[in-house]
Amino acid sequence: MNTQIPLVKSFFDEATHTFSYVVSDPHSKKSAVIDSVLDYDAASATTSTLQADRLIDYIRENSLSNEWILETHVHADHLTASQYLKEQIGGKIAISHNIKIVQATFSQIYNLDLKYFNMSQSFDYLFQDNEHFKIGNLDAYNIPTPGHTPACLSYVIGDAVFVGDTLFMPDYGTARCDFPNGSAAQLYDSVQRLYDLADNMRMFLCHDYLPDNRDTFICETDIKTQKHCNVHIHQGTAKIDFIHMREAKDATLAMPKLILPAIQINMDAGKFPPPESNGQRYLKLPLNYFKA
Ligand SMILES: [Fe+2]
After folding, report:
1. Residues with Cβ within 5 Å of ion ligand 1?
2. pLDDT for 167-200, tens place per residue?
3. Where are the chain's structural domains?
């Protein structure tokens, strides 16, 4: 019996088109959560935990013991529920060591004190590039896949790879590369690293936005299908052609609706800013920093 086939349960958040995952080892009943979502109503700046509670219910109903709360990157389109999940089900909140680049860049944008991030990292664990780890008896490791952001990681767990925003479904293509320290050239190289994986490896995505010709949201494909069919990068796509296509497309995109609240919270492992003297917590919005 192959002991390296994890059970993958996906959870779709319709508000942000995000897939979160609970990945578990059926033998040891250990699990990891990947890319959780904290519900956020932008008009009222109110958070709630409906999405996260679905994951928690699944973990409890299946008597799983949670070891990791993994982030593929600092998301710009939704808030992470990692702190709430840690409190409810435990597990180490982990991300790439390159989070430090994101924290340095966005500390300046939000005028936050970088020393805060340098002195007491809110993430429980920072992965080195290509580091191996375990989820119960499952072998896992990360592959650095920068491009969309400098701190993007893909996680290989048994026969499955979780690629975050590196690739979308083959009929939708790739993620934007125009955030600070994003790079279409780096994304191209990152995708080549994923295409070196076994053809039959299952691939799980962080988002699906539905192209014109499809009416069902899908979170899973495989390496071979992406290699042959991805509309932005398939076998034979020249790097320079991809860069031109990606940069031209990115120039037409509006900022994600939740980028300002999301990055502020996600770069601090999902922690809310400390309360001010009246006991209220506040987020900051840099006026006119990003173009509309
Ligand atoms: Fe993203």
Report:
1. 75, 165
2. 999 999 999 999 999 999 999 999 999 999 999 9
3. 7-255
